[in-house]
Design goal:
By secondary structure, this protein is α/β, with parallel strands linked by helices. 39% of the residues lie in helices and 13% in strands.
């Protein structure tokens, strides 16, 4: 596929294999949540890279109404596949994954997008704050990273920084990347997002929701790759509309009744 900056799978496998195992990880039931829309070309590689990082990691792919062979190729790789009957959008797909994780009793969940932007070899640094008990949710941040890596368009970077500034003021903690879906969550984080998750452009609103529920969030520096396939849900023409809409949603959300998951984090 032209224009892709994929690291070859064997190189990623070698890098992941060279890392020492995380303490206590093998004692936890863990799952990778992979939302995907028309990602038949990238999902198999994402699954390979996740297994290279952690062979004991269960993988669930949420096929968000794809019109290609996303579900078939993911199933052929041995992943659990949840096929949504029609496109719910990223928020609905992600909540479906967290609902699966909660109902099946997983202790730890990681979220990795199906388009190949997230490098599973970097999951170790995202998981570590959760394993140490320093965070309920850890998020990979592009803007806290010292290394270069893939950079989105200038207009989108400006929008992300504006949103990050607003969210940081609201939550009283510096947040640099409010649109990242590269995450690790403990049982409390899984329970929250299984019960309540924004369904439009969710990551920004979800960040505020985490703090309103008094869960601990930590950002971890990561680099991200150019997407390997499919298409972004946010185009350059929609960037301004996106930012205005999300800002409105944040302020409306501040007046929402404080919803607490009514299900036990068993």
């Amino acid at each position: 596929m032209s224009g892709c900056r994929w690291q070859r799978v064997p190189e990623t496998v070698e890098l992941a294999a060279a890392m020492p195992p995380l303490p206590r990880l093998s004692d936890l039931r863990r799952v990778a949540i992979v939302p995907a829309l028309n990602e038949e070309h990238t999902v198999p590689r994402v699954i390979d890279e996740l297994r290279a990082f952690d062979p004991g990691l269960d993988i669930v792919v949420i096929d968000d109404g794809s019109t290609d062979r996303t579900a078939d190729v993911a199933g052929a790789k041995g992943a659990f596949v949840l096929r949504l009957p029609f496109n719910l959008g990223i928020g609905g797909a992600v909540q479906t994954g967290f609902r699966f994780a909660f109902e099946h009793g997983y202790d730890l969940a990681v979220r990795v997008d199906g388009d190949g932007q997230h490098d599973p070899a970097q999951l170790q640094r995202i998981i570590e704050p959760v394993l140490r008990g320093d965070a309920d949710i850890a998020v990979g941040s592009r803007f806290a990273a010292e290394e270069g890596g893939y950079r989105s368009s200038r207009s989108r970077r400006v929008g992300i920084r504006i949103l990050a500034t607003v969210v940081s003021r609201i939550v009283g903690q510096r947040v640099t990347d409010t649109t990242s879906g590269f995450q690790a969550l403990n049982r409390q984080g899984i329970a929250l997002f299984a019960r309540d998750y924004p369904h439009d452009y969710p990551e920004v609103e979800a960040t505020v929701m985490v703090f309103r529920h008094r869960l601990r969030l930590r950002e971890v520096p990561v680099s991200m790759r150019e997407r390997g396939g499919g298409r972004s849900s946010i185009t350059a023409l929609r960037s301004i509309y996106y930012m205005v809409k999300v800002l409105l949603a944040i302020f409306v959300g501040l007046f929402r009744r404080h919803v607490v998951p009514d299900e036990e984090s068993r």
